[in-house]
Design a protein that fits this description.
The protein is mainly beta and 737 residues long. It contains six helices and 54 strands. The chain folds into five domains: 258 residues, 4-Layer Sandwich (Deoxyribonuclease I, Chain A), CATH 3.60.10.10; 82 residues, Immunoglobulin-like; 76 residues, Sandwich (Immunoglobulin-like), CATH 2.60.40; 193 residues, Galactose-binding domain-like (Jelly Rolls, Sandwich); 66 residues, Immunoglobulins (Immunoglobulin-like, Sandwich). Helix 4 packs parallel to helix 5. It starts with 8 loop residues before the first helix and ends with a strand. The N terminus is likely disordered.
Length: 737
């Protein structure tokens, strides 16, 4: 037994059980309880709730509002030890959840985790895979539905829980969903949703026959449930206490139950509106042991050593076989890693401190086997995850280049222009304010740490054609200046066009117009278009925003620039989309990032011929999820400041559409000196490439006597004869309209 002193306590206990347990165990009665037994409105466990948990002696508890003392791991462990015993294991949701759920179990918890609540951002649904001795695993989900929401909200939560169970648990698995549903009646849609794959029969009460099934403090609503899957219902048995047998299961109310000597240390005042928000609900199950030949675990695929860049995600995996279920405990340099109890272990953001040896113990009822060590080596030199991007701007824009990099901290940055260091440009982004033609060129950044340096790819800054000019603009200022930024107009200040709200957006509640950007030289009457009512979180990606209809007839080389800003709760990302037929919109390749201060944005469409000379041209600027805007896994809107909300605002100013004339003025033609030959001569016609010119001839310079000979596009060569007694002739070339 000396060997056990070198093993983790849980592993030593398991091996001791293997030494002492018979090969085949008898049928086992398992008591499952749901408990939201916190005191009053404190959302915290105190002696009344702990008394009831101890008195009813459950084997497995789906616990809500799992808070005790200062909520430190040591205090929670002490609570479990004192109430249930030191052999019980538990899972508790993280402090990211305001009122965490959890699972407490007499049997080993092989895996556990939490699914986000779809209705309440700071709540989750806790789940655990519990290893019952010599039989199937039991999956327990501890839930706390939305008390302040509607019946529809609670049904949305029920549908989400059902979807997660179907996606993550094996088909036909033993599942129990238990907790505080906050339902006013058993007719709510959420109960129907759960009843499509779980059993609400039989319904527990507080008496052996008849009795009250309601579970809230006032005993007038069914808040709390223990719902097994259909695959587990055959195992339901009566709840037996020393003086009573509850055929349908038990709703425990200390004010009703007698004698309390059955359930020490419970006292009659433990339940009730003063001390308790809810009643406990108990169901018992008789689980048959499985008589099988036990096979100790063996490892088929060992974890593999790896070398990764700092900041990368690293996964170690093991493949094992043996009598199911198998449990896992990963170790780092010989010490257990808390919570690393699956067949794979992920490090999301490796650093030099993570270098070392990783291994795993694989355990089942027949034994334990350690894996070999897998060594992690971390390359801490700088690495670039997002390179700076080339940009085309309009003269006068602000231009920002950004790089995303990893590696051992601290990282140092030095931006360069055409290979030369830029003074003071030493962060992960560099901005050219009021960029001018002389700023066009190559931008790069050198990233350095104590392990080495790395130079980024080159990002090229170019400007739209120098002859490009605006032909439509919205500055949103009042047509006649009134020195009031909260009044304005949606009529363009230059050219023609119309604007509209799309996707349900509206004017901001504070007014359709608000203070504009510094790009507008009219500082006395500087307005911007102020919009709000954007889609609910996670819905309507790239559908809501503002639309501009502006004909590009007679124009080419189109570019669009605008200034924008967001409120703290407005979307961080927007996307410009354009249409060439007036109805079907196409994404501009890059999304735009919005901050809480006005910034300029330019989208260059000069490489898209279909937008030229197009009376159906329109564009729109719409709010966008982070996943499609920045290539992340977050299919939600991200706030420019704090937390995204539908009441956040996006403000637009100085929306300008620029382009070149479709048919630029042609250069006057020039004729080369003639080249003489036998019986003929020829000369070259030069001018604007691609422009049409006609060659004319005359016997004198009188403007009325010119005769057209030949028409072509420049440059081209013309030949003519000089045989016989032709009179003197003059030649000229003129451009066609």
């Amino acid at each position: 037994m000396r060997y056990l002193s070198y093993l983790p306590r849980s592993l030593a206990a398991l091996l001791l059980l293997l030494f002492l347990a018979p090969a085949v165990l008898a049928d086992t009665r398992i008591r499952i309880m749901t408990a939201n037994l916190t005191s009053g409105n404190l959302s915290k466990y105190e002696s009344p709730g702990l008394n009831i948990l101890q008195g009813l002696s459950p084997d497995i508890v789906a616990i809500q509002e799992f808070k005790y003392g200062g909520n430190t791991p040591a205090e929670i462990r002490a609570m479990v030890d004192a109430t249930f015993g030191p052999s019980f294991s538990y899972f508790r949701e993280t402090s990211a959840y305001a009122i965490p759920n959890g699972v407490i179990s007499r049997y080993p918890i092989a895996e556990a985790g939490s699914w986000d609540d779809v209705k309440v951002p700071d709540r989750g649904f806790a789940w655990a895979r519990i290893q019952l001795t010599e039989t199937n695993d039991l999956y327990v989900v501890s839930v706390h539905l939305y008390s302040s929401g509607t019946a529809g909200d609670r049904n949305d939560e029920a549908l989400a829980i059902k979807s997660q169970i179907q996606a993550n648990f094996p088909p036909g698995a033993w599942v129990v969903v238990a907790g505080d549903f906050n339902t006013s009646s058993r007719d709510e849609p959420a109960i129907a949703t759960f009843s499509s794959f779980l059993s609400d029969s039989a319904i527990p009460t507080d008496a052996e026959s008849g009795g009250d099934p309601d579970t809230n403090a006032n005993r007038n609503s069914p808040y709390d449930y223990v719902l097994p899957s259909f695959s587990l219902t055959n195992a339901l048995v009566p709840v037996v206490l020393p003086s009573h047998t509850f055929t349908n299961g038990l709703v425990f109310d200390s004010r009703v139950y007698s004698p309390l000597t059955d359930v020490p240390p419970v006292v009659s005042t433990d339940s009730g509106a003063v001390n308790m928000q809810h009643m406990g609900v108990v169901k018992d199950f008789l689980i048959s042991a499985v008589n099988t030949n036990l096979v100790a675990p063996s490892i088929l695929t060992q974890p593999k050593s790896q070398t990764n860049n700092a900041g990368a995600a690293v996964t170690f995996s093991v493949g094992a076989t043996g009598t199911q279920p198998l449990s896992y405990q990963w170790r780092f340099n010989g010490s257990d890693i808390t919570g690393a109890i699956a067949s794979s272990y992920v490090l999301a953001n490796v650093q030099a401190s993570n270098e070392g040896n990783y291994s795993v113990f694989v355990t089942n009822v027949a034994g334990t086997i350690p894996s070999s060590n897998a060594t992690l080596t971390v390359d801490s030199r700088p690495m670039i995850s997002t390179q700076p991007q080339s940009q085309t701007k309009v003269v006068g824009d602000n231009v920002t280049f950004t790089v995303a990099a990893g590696g051992a901290a601290p990282l140092a940055f030095q931006w360069r222009f055409n290979g030369n260091d830029l003074a003071g440009a030493t962060t992960n982004s560099f901005t050219r304010t009021n960029a001018q033609p002389a700023d066009a060129g190559n931008y790069s950044v050198v990233i350095t740490n104590s392990y080495g340096s790395l130079t980024s790819a080159v990002a090229v800054l170019t400007f739209a054609s120098a002859s490009s000019g605006p032909f439509a603009r919205w500055d949103f200022n009042s047509t006649t200046s009134d020195t009031n930024s909260t009044t304005g107009t949606l009529v363009p200040s230059l050219g023609n066009g119309t604007v509209s709200y799309i996707g349900g957006t509206t004017a901001a509640s504070t007014g359709e117009f608000a203070g504009g950007s510094s790009t507008d030289s009219n500082t006395n009457d500087n307005s911007a278009w102020n919009t709000t009512t954007y889609p609910a979180q996670g819905t309507g990606n790239k559908t809501a925003g503002v639309r501009f209809n502006v004909s590009t007839s007679g124009k080419r080389d189109i570019s669009i620039r605008w200034d924008h800003r967001a409120s703290n709760t407005g979307s961080k990302y927007v996307r410009l989309q354009y249409t060439t037929n007036g109805s079907s919109f196409v994404d501009y390749p890059l999304a735009a990032t919005v901050t809480t201060a006005f910034t300029a944005q330019t989208n260059d469409l000069t490489s898209i011929p279909a937008v030229n000379n197009n009376s159906n041209f329109a564009f729109r600027i719409v709010a966008e999820f982070e996943s499609s805007a920045a290539n992340t896994v977050n299919s939600n809107y991200v706030a420019a400041g704090t937390t995204y909300g539908t009441g956040g605002t996006l403000r637009f100013d100085m929306v300008t559409v620029s382009g070149n004339p479709l048919n630029p003025p042609t250069t006057p033609a020039s004729l080369s000196s003639p080249v003489l030959g036998v019986g003929q001569f020829q000369f070259n016609v030069q001018g604007s490439t691609g422009a049409a010119y006609v060659v004319q001839t005359s016997t004198n310079l009188d403007s009325s006597n010119w005769v057209s000979l030949f028409t072509n596009t420049a440059p081209f060569t013309l030949s003519d004869t000089n045989i016989g007694s032709f009179p003197t002739r003059f030649y000229r070339a003129i451009s066609l309209p």
